[in-house]
Amino acid sequence: MTCRSCGLQGLRKFPAEIAIHFPRLDDIAEPHVFLFPTLLVCPHCGAAEFTVPDAELRPLVKDDGGGKV
Q: How far apart are the first and last CA of the chain?
């Protein structure tokens, strides 16, 4: 696979656990969104990527603008 950042071949797959926190202080009481994705990591430049599944994506893009920095 090709890295989207540096264009070199050789992305490696790693299982991961990620907790996404809401950035605004008024969302401090919101629970974290937990993901267990497969990370694709470039051994050349260190770029990493993963996809957020639909069920976990919904709370991150709620109508009131939650998750926008």
A: 31
